[in-house]
Amino acid sequence: MVEGLAIGACYGLFATAVVIIYKTSEVVNFAQGEMAMFSSFVAFHILSAYQYPFWLAFVITMLFSILLGILIEFLFLRPAKHPSILGMIVITLGAEMFLMGLASWKWGAEQKFFSLPLNPSVTYEPVKGMIITNWAIAVFAVTACIMLFLYIFFKFTRLGVAMRATQQNKHAAKIMGIRTERIFSFAWGFSSLIGAVAGMFFASRATLDPAFMMEPFLRAFAAAVLGGLMSIPGVIIGGALMGLIENFFGYFWPHWKPIIAFIVIILVLCLRPSGLFTKHYVKKV
Amino acid sequence: MTLRKKVPFFFVAALAVLTVAGMAQAAMPAGFDDNEIRIGQWGPQTGPAAPWGSVARGSKLLFDIVNEEGGIHGRKIKYFIRDDMYNPAQTVGVVKELVERAGVLAFVGGVGTASGLAVKDYLAENKVIWVGPVGAVDEYVFPAKPYLFAVNTLYADEGSLLAKYVVDKLNTRKIGILYQNDVYGKAGLEGVKQRLAAYKMGLVAEIPVEPTEKDMASQVLRLKNSGAEAVILYVSPTIAVIALKTSATIGFKPQWVSSHTLSDYPLMNKISGGLWEGVITGAVGDIPDSKHPLMVKYREAAKRLAPEERWGVFYYAGIIFADPLVEALKRVGRNLSTDALLKALNSLTGYQTIGPKINWSEKQHQGTDSIMIHKCGPGGSYIKLQDWTANDLAAWKK
Q1: Which of A4, A71, B65, B141 could form a disulfide with A243 if both were Cys (CB 3.0 to 4.6 A apart)?
Q2: B322 and B353 share a domain?
Q3: How far apart are CA B203 and CA B100, in angstroms?
Q4: In CATH, what number is assigned to the domain containing residue B51?
Q5: Is B99 an interface residue toward A (CB < 8 Å)?
Q6: Residues in chain A whose Cβ is within 8 Å of chain B
Q7: Do B162 and B263 fall within a single domain?
Q8: What is the DSSP letter of B379?
Q9: Contact A120 B249 (CB under 8 A)
């Protein structure tokens, strides 16, 4: 159950990255997984080629991921003239393929070993039968910190309020003096950073290769739909629910595990299209 | 244009199209001439399955050696490798290009069961010989296809032999299996179950997994709770690594046993962070540092002709899959034709180089039912546990 919650928190964390972009521009960024993959490869490269200590590599990777997000927005989305939402989504698909191709060219398609400085053999058993791994503790701690930061950021900072204003009405925000293009750049950079953190968690659990984030992206998207694409706490809870449901089915009915996430999406879209934790669905006109 | 004028016009146009199409068909190039024999192979040189692309490059080494030694009856081998990125749609494209434009006499190897199944009928329709498909599934050989000759051991036969080893040699009776939910995984499962049924035993856990999954916590926990002392794997490298990593964190330490598809120990040991040490796998070739004279010859040739290549099991599997074709071409002599080559392939019995012993006949194109069994030693090294062993339960031989 704890592992299910931890993987769910990881989906939720990654879904948060999707939601931050969606909240500001209503674009589902299909390059999110590959942005995280690319940043994880950068971390791998710094660790393996330059032999830097992990925490230095982590800081450099975080800076790189912010730059990557800003660059993708600046080079791929901003030049589009009067783009429709569908057009923007197609552009993100192009960015996804570009990043995957670039990673394959630079690092090859072969799987790589990536680890976090956590001893996998150290586990805790607070209650008999409930094993908590170091990885799970790290995921819970990081997710909690990021959630707390996001709450303070969106509630109490000028930039956070400006981001919310841009999401609610881009034109009105512009009239009020908010430089919306900068807001978009910031959202992409910030989202890329959170995605990179989640990407490293996923890579340390499996292997690192150019396609390794495709499946987690789909699960995270399912978690975001479950929780509500507009609600950051909602996607975290959605992710946790997703992890628990998947692991429940994985244990008792393993054949159903791969499809249960998508059955959940369909059910939620039919019964509560705005997600379980979004109060109401606002359609902009 | 009136109707009376239109009818002859369309008739002439249709005739012209059919004539051109017929000419194109007739102009399909032969697979050889007086100076060369053209052979092709598809395989992922880029994309997610690129590590298996070394199979096609391994075959190239054999053809380079043959050419260096003067070719076959005065003809050099011209070899074409095409990258299909492990995508069956692309496989169809590259195979058609090689058959209809380059003109190949035969294909060898070919990574990807789905890719192979996508072109199997096309190759048969065009009477192009295909030797040694890398996938090892019933669909290729049962019933025997006139132009397709399998070298690789069927996953079902391998599964049966791995289960036999676990029961007889490891004396383990609580066996679980983690298998990929596709043709590959199900064939392995079938073989394991067949063997255990012969022992009047059953699996303690039978867990399917999709190749794209990234979380295996629930499946591994179920294996642990089943009491499995040995777990047989018919999965992809990534799934195997996730399973081993997850097991390490929950203190589950069974004897892992795997299909030969995960027998590239240096790679598996590297991507699992050393967890692959101790894993037992099937093998369709001798160990890399074997003292077998032919292994020594090929290994030395690789250093000279392809110094950039790693001498890994998938690389020299390319030699194993292409070797019987070279032997059949030698037996045909100078009067080469597709029919003569088929005759030579159909009469290849008891033929063995660095792979399993191959036996083909007109009615049976599954060449072998044998595997070796190896174990991953320290640092991804190879330990040979068992020499070539045939599957006494292979249903297809009866």
Answers
A1: A4
A2: yes
A3: 49
A4: 3.40.50.2300
A5: no
A6: 3-4, 7, 104, 108-113, 115, 120-121, 123, 131, 133, 135, 202, 205-207, 209-212, 214-216, 219, 243, 246-251, 254-255, 257-258
A7: yes
A8: G
A9: yes
Query: Is the domain of B195 the same as that of B329?
Result: no
DSSP track, B11-51: HHHHHHHHHHHHHHHHTPPPSB-SSEEEEEEEE-SSSTTGG
| Residue range of the domain that includes B350 | 36-153+290-367
Q: How far is A245 from chain B (nearest CA, A)?
A: 11
Residue B99 has what DSSP assignment? I
Which tokens sit at B122? 């096309």
Q: To which residue do tokens 């956590």 refer? A: A118
Do B231 and B338 lie in one domain? The reply is no
Task: Tell me: do B82 and B126 sit in the same domain.
Answer: yes
Structural domain contains residue A20: yes
A260 found inside a domain: no
CA–CA separation, A169 vs A188, rounded Å? 18
Radius of gyration of chain A (CA): 19
Distances (CA, A) of A18 to A22, A222, B2, B36: 6, 11, 63, 57
In a domain, B393, yes or no: yes
Q: What is the pLDDT along chain A (285 residues), one digit of tens a residue?
A: 677 788 888 888 898 998 888 888 778 889 999 999 999 999 999 998 888 999 999 999 999 999 999 999 888 888 877 778 788 888 899 999 999 889 988 888 778 888 888 776 677 777 776 778 888 888 899 999 998 998 898 888 888 888 878 877 777 877 877 787 788 888 899 999 999 999 999 998 888 988 889 888 988 888 888 888 777 888 888 888 888 888 888 888 888 888 887 888 788 888 887 777 766 555 555
d(CA A134, nearest CA chain B) in Å: 9
Residues B131 and B253 in one domain: no
Q: Which of A111, A200, A217, A219 to mutate to test the interface with B (most CBs of B within 10 A)?
A: A111
Q: Which domain holds residue A206?
A: 2-212
